[in-house]
Design brief:
single chain; alpha+beta; Beta-Lactamase; Helix Hairpins; Heat Shock Protein 90; seven-stranded mixed β-sheet; five-stranded antiparallel β-sheet; 10 helices; 14 strands; 52% helix; rod-shaped
Length: 564
């Protein structure tokens, strides 16, 4: 049984998913279904009211007819009894003379007759007392109506009942029932002066057939009306939804880079005006995008050309600077200091030129990865050892916290090392100098899908809003602050591109006076997709109310909650 249920679910599940997907994506389907459902509710309510009114009208008319017929029968019977009162002294014979003509007329007209009595003396109907139409079950007369006529002479009364008849005998006996109306009226026999009750049972078969016919007609009309409403709704919504679908398809093609796509404008209605405005917007966007592309191409070409053209004069100046730097001992103090400053600035200029060339490669899409599976702990220790002289110069400690299990990942060693070196030197630059209680802390962690490195400092931190600009090119949190590592202002921008190239995240958290923390998260396997990071972005020693981070995915700056 369980295997059958699993097979049924396996067959049903994909179809159910496709149906739900179609329901979510198709506004036309939702409008049509909603309109049909609401129309069905309205039609059902109106149909129920009409059926109730029709039923009540049919029954009211039938009751009026039945009461008139009963009055006529009772009047006729009373007249016959009065005419025969002086000649007949046998009560039993007079009962037969009273009820037999009525039973005969009832058989021809389709109603049954029961004569019960005399009241308070005769046996109850349930025990077989009285005269009645052949085949009629005396239980068809309700007990409530029978009790109504117990006692003195009472007026005519009626009620609804279920008329039960028996046909055939023995094995062929059958019992049928149908709704009906029973009317009771009392008469007195002159022979004995006793009061007898005549019960007339009229079936409602014709009224029931009429009501069934009306019900079928209403159901047919309701189904046809709902189909018509569904068709009209579909046609109306199609006139609105079709242009929207065309606009969506054109927008998707525009987003894919096919900037020449346009909507076809027909007519002068609101949809046509919308299409015209959409085409104007697309034309404006195409023009601006082309201008930006041309400007970006000129900018990239300028950076690339200038970077390459500067290498030759820089090499010449470097050779002259090396000669002057080596001979500075023979110069007077001012000249020797000038030679040292020129050498330092040439080093910084050369680093800037290298970074510009790297940025130009990213802009041109020429950067590629050379991945290998490495232990990120060894890489981090190597970077920290290289940065320790700079930390010692500022009186800072740089600590590395590694897990017991090696953190391994498929990465481009040169690029990841450049990211970590940039983060560590930035942390040293912005940490509080000569404070032995503070340290720059580097942590590593990994799980089955990702590996992460965080660099935490307790320096000046980041002011509100600065986290969204920290990866911009040439941006500095404090332009007046003196750098000790000789940075170019392109380090974090290049680190962002390196993280993007790995399919990873580069995130920053910071608060004024509480320091900052940067987190690098990369897939453990090349080409993997990140869903989370094994290390928290907000440091544990930060205030619990502190939030805020910038997440870089695909070169786009996202909100603080992503990637946590």
């Amino acid at each position: 049984m369980l295997a059958v249920l699993r097979r049924c679910w396996a067959w049903l599940a994909p179809r159910l998913r496709r149906g739900l997907t179609f329901w979510r994506r198709s506004i036309q389907a939702r409008v049509v279904v909603s309109t049909v459902v609401l129309s069905a509710v309205v039609v059902s309510g109106v149909g129920w009211i009409l059926l109730q009114q029709t039923r009540e009208g049919l029954l009211r008319h039938r009751v009026d007819v039945v009461l008139g017929e009963v009055d006529a029968e009772v009047s006729d019977a009373q007249g016959r009894l009065e005419a025969a009162s002086g000649r007949e002294g046998n009560a039993g014979r007079q009962q037969r003379d009273l009820v037999d003509p009525i039973i005969e007329r009832g058989d021809s007209r389709g109603y049954a007759v029961v004569l019960a009595g005399p009241e308070e003396e005769g046996p109850p109907l349930r025990t077989g007392g009285g005269e009645y139409t052949s085949g009629l079950d005396l239980a068809s007369v309700p007990v409530t109506l029978e009790e109504h006529f117990d006692g003195p002479l009472r007026a005519t009364a009626w009620t609804y009942t279920e008329i039960v008849r028996s046909t055939g005998t023995g094995a062929d006996a059958r019992t049928t029932s149908e709704p009906g109306i029973v009317v009771g009226s009392q008469v007195q026999l002159p022979s004995d002066g006793q009061t007898y009750t005549l019960y007339f049972l009229f079936p409602l078969a014709e009224e029931q057939d009429t009501l069934s016919l009306v019900t079928r007609a209403l159901l047919t009309a309701a189904v046809l009306l709902l189909v018509l409403v569904a068709g009209v709704t579909w046609l109306v919504t199609r006139q609105v939804v079709s242009p929207i679908r065309m606009a969506r398809e054109v927008a998707e093609r525009l987003a894919a880079g096919r900037l020449q796509e346009r909507l076809q404008v027909t007519g002068e209605d609101d949809i046509a005006r919308l299409a015209y405005s959409f085409n104007q917007m697309a034309t404006s966007l195409q023009r601006q995008i082309r201008q930006l592309e041309e400007l970006s191409w000129v900018q990239r070409r300028f950076v690339s050309d200038v970077s390459h053209e500067l290498r030759t004069p820089l090499t010449t100046v470097r050779m002259a600077s090396d000669v002057l730097h080596d001979a500075r001992a023979s110069f007077d103090p001012a000249t020797a200091r000038s030679a040292e400053l020129m050498q330092a600035e040439l080093d910084r200029f050369e680093n800037l030129l290298v970074d510009l060339l790297e940025i130009s490669r990213f802009d041109a899409g020429a950067a590629v990865l050379a991945t290998e599976n490495v232990n990120l702990g060894d890489l981090v220790r190597r970077v920290v050892d290289a940065a320790r002289p700079l930390a010692d110069q500022r009186g800072l400690r740089v600590l590395v916290a590694e897990p017991d299990v090696p953190v391994r990942a498929d990465v481009d060693v040169r690029r990841i090392e450049r990211i970590v070196r940039n983060l560590v030197t930035n942390a040293i630059d912005h940490a509080l100098a000569d404070d032995p209680t503070e340290a720059v802390l580097v942590r590593l962690a990994s799980d089955d899908e990702s590996a992460a490195i965080t660099v935490r400092d307790h320096g000046i931190g980041l002011a509100p809003g600065e986290a969204s600009m920290v990866f911009n090119r040439f941006w500095r949190s404090d332009p007046a602050r003196t750098r000790t590592s000789g940075g170019t202002g392109l380090g974090l921008a290049i680190a962002q591109e390196d993280a993007h190239l790995h399919g990873g995240w580069l995130q920053a958290w910071g608060r004024t006076g509480q320091g900052a923390q940067f987190r690098l998260t990369v897939p453990r396997h090349a080409g993997g997709t990140l869903r989370h990071s094994p290390l928290p972005l907000v440091p544990e020693d930060a205030a619990s109310s502190d939030t805020g981070a910038v997440v870089v995915r695909g070169g786009v700056v996202a909100g603080p909650e992503e990637g946590r």
